[in-house]
Prior knowledge:
Elements: E1 3-8, H1 27-38, E2 46-50, H2 59-68, E3 76-79, H3 86-92, E4 107-111, E5 114-118, E6 129-130, H4 133-145, E7 151-154, H5 165-168, E8 172-174, H6 176-184, E9 189-194, E10 201-205, E11 208-212, E12 219-220, E13 232-233, E14 238-245, E15 249-256, E16 267-268, E17 271-272
Parallel strand pairs: 1-2, 2-3, 5-7, 6-8, 7-9, 9-11
Antiparallel strand pairs: 1-14, 4-5, 10-11, 12-13, 14-15, 16-17
Helix pairs in contact: 2-3
Amino acid sequence: MSTYLYQITDLHIREPGQLAYGRLDTAPYFRRAIETILIQPQAPTALVLTGDLTDFGRPEEYAHLQSLMRNLTCPIYMLAGNHDNPEIMRKAFPQLTYLGDSGPMQFSVTVGDIQLIALDTTLPYQSHGALTSDRLAWLETELEKHSHSPVVIAMHHPPFKTLIGHMDKIGLLHGSEALKELVMRHVNVERLICGHLHRNITVRFGNTVASSCSSPAHQVVMDLDTEAVSQWNLEPGGMHVHAWSKESGLISHYLPVGNFDGPYPFHIDGKLID
């Protein structure tokens, strides 16, 4: 039996009719992402949203988000990003008891054969993130509890540099090295999955792999300069599918958002089409 953990990040949903940055209606992009999930041959065991669910953390934005997700039947696990408001988010989704009542929005849940551990990297009214000692202590306890299960750690701010200067300035500015040391003591951590960057990026992190995922809507411009201007574009959006089986371990796939031409066969009667 395989486990399929789908990841979408950085939705930046606005109130109905409002445009992000005065230009972009993000809702249709998220709607297409959900439609993409629903046509996949492998249905999600669960969906994790790794932060920046809304643009300003307003009640009307979360209400809009909830309406957009009404066709999803799988479990949905949400993390807060720097654009979210945890207090309003909890009020908007009272049925999601894993969000807790107060404090850091951290949780640990079983998804098929995977243990999904969500870390809160946000700071009130700040764009950058941090992992405080109490959050890391909680993570260590959870890792010790689940030392015999494959673990995926989900977080909003990435614990690595990207070379995109303006994003590195608002990344995880405190706690990355402590996190790396902790992860290195637990060889069953299969992946750290992140948001925030609006790009697909993969790096080695200690003895595991860390990655970020593109947004279903807008992407950060690819410019590997320490003085790169903070800009976005409409490169195609996407999501990740983290597939686990005992035979193959964890394999992460990039899935573009959309419905494309095809499928078409490579072969007819066992022969490559000429």
